[in-house]
Design a protein that fits this description.
Elements (H helix, E strand, L loop, with lengths): L1 H12 L1 H25 L4 H12 L2 H12 L2 H18 L2 H30 L10 E8 L4 E2 L1 E2 L1 H14 L2 E13 L8 E9 L3 H5 L5 E2 L15 E4 L1 H7 L10 E4 L2 E8 L14 E4 L3 H4 L11 E6 L6 H14 L10 E8 L6 H39 L1 H9 L4 H38 L1 H5 L11 H26 L14 H4 L1 E2 H30 L14 E5 L5 H9 L3 E7 L9 E7 L2 E10 L3 H5 L5 E2 L4 H6 L3 E5 H7 L9 E5 L9 E9 L15 E5 L5 E6 L3 H14 L5 E4 H44 L1 H9 L4 H37 L8 H26 L4 H7 L1
Parallel strand pairs: 5-10, 7-9, 17-22, 19-21
Antiparallel strand pairs: 1-2, 1-11, 1-12, 3-11, 4-5, 4-11, 6-9, 7-10, 8-9, 14-23, 14-24, 15-23, 16-17, 16-20, 18-21, 19-22, 20-21
Helix pairs in contact: 2-3, 5-14, 6-12, 6-14, 6-16, 7-11, 12-16, 12-18, 12-24, 14-16, 18-24, 18-26, 18-27, 24-27, 25-28, 26-27
Length: 873
C-alpha cells in the first residue's frame, strides 16, 4: 500500500516528466517505423504520414498507459475538480447560498461535538494518560462505589499500592479566601484539591514556576503548609504575580507558602480545575475551613505498571480484598472490584453515562443538518433541471451515467468542503462562549471547568459531516439528472430513479421532511420554554422572597446571636438541608408492618415559622426536642393522607429504619404534626408527595427570614458572616430557583436556536421550491388565466399546492411530538409536556411563516401574461 501511495504521489508531483518521457518513447517508435518505411521505398512525407496513422492518436496511448498503471482516476478527478470550480464560479449566488446554509448546519453540530469531545474523548493532558484507570469497588451487598472515606482509604491503601504502580488519591473541597480580584476584603469561594505528595511526579507534570511537592513533604499531619497553584489560581489568588514563589496565602486563618505554579495546559485529571493543590498532611486544616463547602470523599485513580492490563489488576485487587480481614473495620466492607481505563477528564462511569445521554442531543442537532440537506437537495434538483440540455448532450456523446454522476457529486463535494471550512471557522470562534453559556450554573458557583477549543477531532468531524451531506443532497439530484431516458433531459418534467418517482413528488417529499423536522425541533423548544417558565409562577407553599439561604456558611453561636439581634431579621433556622437545594435525603420508615423509603428533612424548631408554613394539624418541634433529637416527627399532608386515610395521623407511631451499614436498632417516633405539602427539592419536581420532618439542631445550613428588601440585607448578612470568621453568599430561595432554572434556560435557548435555524432553512427552501414550480408551470397557469381564471383562484391554486406539503409535514411531526411528550411524562410527571405554546402557538407560527414564504411567488403567479407564457413555450 505504501509503495502504491508513493507511486501515485510521484505521478502527481512529476506528471509533466512522465508525459515527457512517454512522448519521447512514442516519438521513438514513430521515427523507427518511419525509417523502416523509407527503407522500403516510400518517400519521407508519405512514410511520416503512414507511421503516424499506424501509431494512432498519442492521447489514446497516454490514456491506455495511465489506465494500465492505475492512474486514470487521478486524471478524471482532476478534470472533475477543474470543471466543478468553473461551473460553481459561474453561479456565485447559488454557490454562496449552499455554503452558508450547509456551513451553519455543520457548525452547530461541530460546536456540540467539540464540547462533547473535550469531556468524553480527550484524555487528560498528562504523561501517563494511557495508563490511568478508574477503580470501582463493590461491597458485600453488591453496592458499587468509586470513592472512599478517610478510614476506608487508610485501610485499603496498602491493597491498592500492591496492585498498582501508583495510586492517585485526591479530594476536592471549597474554601473561602480573600483574593486580589475581590474588593473591600470580601471573600470568594475557590475550589482546590488535597493530593498525595507524589501527585505531580506520577503524572509527569512540570511546573511553569517554582517546584512541586518534594519526596518527604506532606507526610506528617499538620506539617508542610505548602501550595502549588494552577494557572487560573495564580491569576485569581495571586493577581498573576511573577514573583509569587515563596509568598504566603492565608487560608482559614493559617498561612500557606506558594512553592510552584503549574502551566496553563495542566489542570489535573478531573473536570473541575483546582485553584491550587495542597498536600495530604494539611487535610485537617483545610477541610475544616469555616464557611467552606462540604468536602467530597477521596477519589481514587490508579496508574498501571507498563505492560499490565486493567483486567489483570482487577483480578489481583479482587483477590487481595478477599484475603483482607475487614470484619472489625469502620465503613464498607469491599469484596470485589472492576478496573476501567480512564479515557477522559470524566471517570469511566460518568463518561459512559454522558455517552448515553448525548445520543438524543446529537439527534436533535442532526435534525438541523437533515433539514439543510433536504433543502439543498431541492436546490440541486432545480439546478439539475436547468442543466438538462447540457447533461443530455454529454450523455449523448458517450459519457457513461456513472461518469456524469461522478462529476455532479464532485461539485457537491466542493461546496460541502467549502461549507466545512466555514463551519470550522464558526466553531473556532463560538465554541468557548457557548461552552461557558451551557455550563453557566457551574461557573456561578465559582468552579473552573477550563476552556474548550476546536481541535483536529472537531475539524475531522466537520469534514466527515460535509462529505456525508454532499452524498445526501447531491446523489438524488445526480441520479435524477442522469436517468436512463436521454430524451428526459430536454423535457420539463421527469421521473427520478428511472421513472419510478415523479420529480415534483420527490421535491414534495424533501419539503415535507424539512417541515416535519423543523416542527419537531420547535415543539421541543416550546416544551422546554414552558417548563422554564414554571419557575416564574411557582407556588412553593412559602414566601420565596423573604427567606435567605446563607450559602457556604455553617452556623456558630456568635453568628446566630448577631443574626437574631440584627434589625430586619425576623427569624432564622438551622437545617441539615435547605429547601430547593436538590434531592432530599432518603429515609426508610416502617408503618403497619411495611417499610417505605421517603424524603427526610432534619430541621430545628424555627423552620416552619421562618418559612411561614402554617401547620394543618398538631404542632411543630420544641426547642428541647430539636436539641435532643427527640423521637417525634412531622408529616407532610400527602404522606399523612396516604398512611392514615380518613383519620388523624397525630399520635401514630412510626419506625425509623437505620440506613445500610448502620447496625443500630430501629428508632420509634411519634407523629406530633402535619404540615402542608411544599416544594423542598428541585422546583420541577413539584410539591413533596412523601416527606418526614425530624428534629435536629446541629445542622450546617442557615435560613434567615427577613422583613426588608433583600438588596438592603444581603451585604449586611455577608458582613456578619465575615465578622464571625466565616463566609457566605446570601441568596433568596427565589434566586435559588433561578439557579435551578439555568439548565432549562440554556436548553430552551439552544432548542429555540436549532428550531429557528431549521425553520428559516425550510422557509427559504419552500420559497425556492414554490418559485421553481411556478416557473415550471408558467404555461399551465397562463392557460388557466386565458380560460378565465381569476387572480384569487390562481393564488389559491398555488398556495394550496405549497401549503399541502406544510400540512403533511405537520401531520407527521405532531404525532411524533405527542409520543415524545407521553414518554417523558411517564418519567417526569410534574413537568408540563402538553403545553399550549408548544402544541398550538408553535404549529400556528410555522404555518403562518410558511404562508408568508409562499405568498410572494404565489402573488407573482397571478400576474403571468397568458400570451407571453404561450410564446415562451
Amino acid at each position: 500500500m505504501l509503495n502504491r501511495l508513493r507511486e501515485w504521489w510521484s505521478v502527481l508531483s512529476g506528471r509533466d516528466v512522465v508525459n515527457h518521457e512517454l512522448d519521447e518513447e512514442l516519438a521513438f517508435h514513430r521515427d523507427a517505423r518511419r525509417d523502416d518505411l523509407i527503407r522500403e521505398g516510400l518517400s519521407p512525407e508519405v512514410a511520416e504520414r503512414q507511421a503516424r496513422i499506424e501509431l494512432g492518436m498519442t492521447e489514446t496511448h497516454r490514456q491506455a498507459y495511465r489506465e494500465a498503471r492505475g492512474f486514470a482516476w487521478l486524471d478524471r478527478l482532476g478534470g472533475d475538480l477543474r470543471y466543478g470550480f468553473r461551473s460553481l464560479r459561474q453561479r456565485p449566488g447559488f454557490s454562496l447560498s449552499v455554503v452558508l446554509i450547509l456551513g451553519l448546519a455543520i457548525a452547530v453540530n461541530t460546536v456540540l461535538f467539540s464540547i462533547y469531545s473535550a469531556y468524553v474523548l480527550q484524555p487528560p493532558k498528562v504523561a501517563v494518560a494511557d495508563r490511568l484507570v478508574d477503580i470501582t469497588l463493590y461491597s458485600e451487598d453488591g453496592r458499587s462505589r468509586n470513592w472512599l472515606q478517610d478510614e476506608e482509604l487508610q485501610r485499603l491503601q496498602p491493597v491498592l499500592d500492591s496492585v498498582l504502580q501508583s495510586t492517585l488519591a485526591r479530594r476536592e473541597f471549597g474554601v473561602p479566601v480573600t483574593t486580589p480580584m475581590t474588593s473591600n476584603a470580601r471573600k470568594a469561594m475557590v475550589f482546590a484539591q488535597i493530593v498525595e505528595p507524589d501527585f505531580f511526579r506520577v503524572l509527569g507534570a512540570k511546573p511553569a514556576m517554582g517546584r512541586v511537592f518534594a519526596p518527604g513533604e506532606g507526610q506528617v499531619e499538620g506539617r508542610d503548609p505548602l501550595l502549588v497553584l494552577s494557572d487560573s489560581g495564580w491569576r485569581s489568588l495571586a493577581g498573576a504575580d511573577p514573583a509569587v514563589i515563596g509568598k504566603p496565602i492565608t487560608l482559614n486563618g493559617q498561612q500557606y507558602t506558594v512553592i510552584g505554579v503549574m502551566p496553563a495546559d495542566f489542570g489535573g485529571i478531573d473536570v473541575i480545575l483546582p485553584a491550587f493543590w495542597a498536600p495530604r498532611s494539611m487535610s485537617g486544616q483545610l477541610l475544616g475551613a469555616p464557611g467552606g463547602m462540604q468536602p467530597r470523599p477521596w477519589m481514587i485513580t490508579g496508574v498501571l505498571a507498563p505492560g499490565v492490563r486493567p483486567e489483570q489488576v482487577a483480578a489481583r485487587l479482587t483477590t487481595a480484598l478477599g484475603n483482607l480481614d475487614q470484619s472489625n473495620e469502620v465503613g464498607e466492607r469491599f469484596r470485589d472490584a472492576t478496573v476501567a481505563p480512564r479515557t477522559s477528564r470524566l471517570d469511566a462511569g460518568d463518561a459512559e453515562a454522558m455517552k448515553v445521554a448525548a445520543w438524543p442531543i446529537f439527534a436533535a442537532f442532526a435534525l438541523v443538518l437533515l433539514v439543510a440537506c433536504a433543502n439543498l437537495a431541492n436546490l440541486f434538483l432545480a439546478r439539475a433541471t436547468a442543466r438538462r440540455n447540457e447533461l443530455a448532450i454529454r450523455l449523448s456523446l458517450g459519457a457513461s451515467r456513472g461518469r456524469v454522476v461522478s462529476q455532479l457529486l464532485t461539485e457537491s463535494l466542493l461546496l460541502a468542503l467549502a461549507a466545512a471550512v466555514l463551519a470550522c471557522a464558526i466553531t473556532t470562534l463560538a465554541v468557548e462562549p457557548l461552552h461557558r453559556l451551557v455550563f453557566g450554573m457551574v461557573l456561578r458557583f465559582g468552579m473552573d471547568i477550563g476552556a474548550v477549543s476546536a481541535d483536529w477531532r472537531a475539524f475531522a468531524y466537520a469534514v466527515l459531516l460535509a462529505m456525508l451531506a454532499a452524498v445526501t443532497f447531491g446523489l438524488i439530484p445526480a441520479l435524477q439528472a442522469t436517468r436512463g431516458d436521454l430524451a428526459g433531459g430536454v423535457r420539463r418534467d421527469g421521473h427520478a430513479f428511472g421513472g419510478r418517482l415523479p420529480s415534483h413528488r420527490l421535491r414534495g417529499v424533501l419539503m415535507t421532511a424539512q417541515i416535519a423536522s423543523s416542527l419537531l425541533l420547535l415543539v421541543v423548544a416550546g416544551l422546554i420554554v414552558d417548563n422554564a417558565r414554571l419557575a416564574d409562577d411557582l407556588d412553593a407553599g412559602y414566601d420565596l422572597d423573604r427567606v435567605v439561604h446563607l450559602r457556604y456558611q455553617s452556623p456558630n453561636p456568635t453568628l446566630l446571636q448577631r443574626l437574631r439581634e440584627e434589625p430586619g431579621v425576623c427569624d432564622l433556622s438551622v437545617v441539615a438541608n435547605a429547601p430547593l437545594m436538590g434531592v432530599l435525603a432518603r429515609q426508610g420508615v416502617g408503618i403497619d408492618g411495611r417499610t417505605e423509603v421517603v424524603g427526610s428533612m432534619q430541621t430545628d424548631e424555627h423552620y416552619f415559622d421562618a418559612l411561614g408554613i402554617q401547620l394543618l394539624d398538631g404542632r411543630g418541634f420544641s426547642r428541647q426536642e430539636s436539641e435532643d433529637g427527640a423521637d417525634v416527627a412531622v408529616l407532610s399532608a400527602a404522606t399523612a393522607a396516604r398512611w392514615f386515610p380518613g383519620r388523624s395521623a397525630l399520635g401514630a407511631e412510626l419506625e425509623i429504619v437505620p440506613g445500610r451499614g448502620d447496625d443500630s436498632p430501629p428508632r420509634h417516633v411519634r407523629v406530633i404534626g402535619v404540615a402542608p405539602d411544599v416544594v423542598s427539592q428541585f422546583f420541577f419536581q413539584g410539591r413533596d408527595h412523601s416527606l418526614v420532618y425530624l428534629p435536629q439542631s446541629d445542622g450546617d445550613q442557615l435560613l434567615v427570614a427577613i422583613d426588608r428588601p433583600v438588596g438592603q440585607m444581603a451585604s449586611r448578612l455577608s458582613d456578619l458572616c465575615v465578622d464571625a470568621g466565616g463566609f457566605c453568599e446570601p441568596n433568596t430561595l427565589r434566586e435559588q430557583i433561578g439557579i435551578q432554572r439555568m439548565p432549562f434556560a440554556v436548553a430552551s435557548q439552544v432548542a429555540v436556536v436549532l428550531g429557528v435555524l431549521a425553520l428559516l432553512i425550510s422557509c427559504v427552501g419552500l420559497y425556492g421550491v414554490v418559485s421553481y414550480l411556478i416557473a415550471r408551470r408558467t404555461r399551465e397557469i397562463g392557460v388557466r388565466i386565458a380560460l378565465g381564471a381569476q387572480p384569487g383562484g390562481v393564488l389559491r391554486f398555488v398556495l394550496g399546492g405549497a401549503l399541502r406539503q406544510v400540512l403533511i409535514g405537520m401531520a407527521i411531526a405532531l404525532p411524533l411530538c405527542l409520543l415524545l411528550s407521553f414518554a417523558l411524562s411517564r418519567l417526569m410527571p410534574t413537568l408540563s409536556l402538553f403545553g399550549f405554546n408548544a402544541y398550538v402557538l408553535t404549529p400556528a407560527m410555522l404555518l403562518g411563516i410558511a404562508l408568508l414564504a409562499t405568498l410572494r411567488p404565489a402573488w407573482r403567479a397571478t400576474a403571468i401574461s397568458p400570451m407571453r407564457a404561450l410564446r415562451e413555450e
